[in-house]
Design goal:
By secondary structure, the chain is α+β, with helices and mostly antiparallel strands. The chain has a single domain (3-163), classed as M1 Pyruvate Kinase, Domain 3 (Beta Barrel), CATH 2.40.33. The protein is 27% helix and 27% strand. Strand 7 (59-63), helix 1 (64-74) and strand 8 form a beta-alpha-beta unit.
Length: 209
């Protein structure tokens, strides 16, 4: 796996539905090395700290393979950073919760699927895009930073596989009407991000199992 782009953004205005907000979704690729700390890339902004960012979701990763698929679906070019990701890699297949990524001095751990929201839909100029993104099951992944350091475009990423469920399976579970208790428990037994963990616990309690 190879790191193709490092993307960050300042807060910028965006109309989401009827309200104006400020978002860090408009990521731009950076030419030089970028420092990554425990809470994300230096110089990057997070607009909604309730649902994004924090130590468990410090980095959002997306793949060039998924960009190619979306470009074909949408019929237009999409520069890296369009989906709001911090890091763009060449591929992101079979990622699992708990995977360790070593990229030079930086160590990341995959922690959760990315869940689409109204901000993504507004960014794409399509009110229905969040549902379309969910149906495609090409959500990318959040990661926590285990070891901070400096990232550079072109670095190789070495993966040590975790034992948790597939990120794609949890993404599909999130959007399923019927929640699979076994998969919920598998997620909870892995190093799942706290926001997702809270949702999984709630769903288990609702199932009464």
């Amino acid at each position: 796996m190879t790191l193709l782009s490092i993307n960050l953004s300042s807060l910028q205005p965006l109309k989401v539905g009827r309200r104006m907000t400020r978002t860090g979704h408009f990521k731009q690729g950076q030419a030089g090395p970028v420092r990554l700390g425990r809470l994300g890339l230096e110089g990057d902004a997070v607009g909604n700290l309730k649902h994004h960012g924090g130590p468990d979701q410090a980095v959002y990763v997306y793949s060039a393979e998924d960009y190619a698929w979306w470009e074909q679906q949408l019929g237009r070019s999409l520069p890296f950073g369009t989906f709001g990701e911090n890091l763009t890699v060449d591929r992101l297949q079979a990622a699992r919760i708990g995977d360790i990524w070593q990229c030079g001095p930086v160590s990341l751990q995959i922690s959760a699927p990315r869940i689409p929201c109204a901000t993504l839909a507004a960014r794409m100029g399509d009110p229905g895009f969040a549902k379309r993104f969910a149906r495609a099951n090409r959500g990318g992944a959040y990661a926590r930073v285990l070891e901070p350091g400096t990232l550079t475009i072109g670095q190789s990423v070495e993966v040590t596989a975790g034992q948790g469920p597939l990120v794609d399976d949890l993404f599909e579970l999130w959007h399923s009407r019927d929640k699979d208790p076994q998969l919920l428990r598998a997620g909870l037994s892995a190093p799942l991000a706290e926001r997702a963990r809270a949702a999984f616990l709630h769903w288990l309690e609702a199932e009464g199992v």
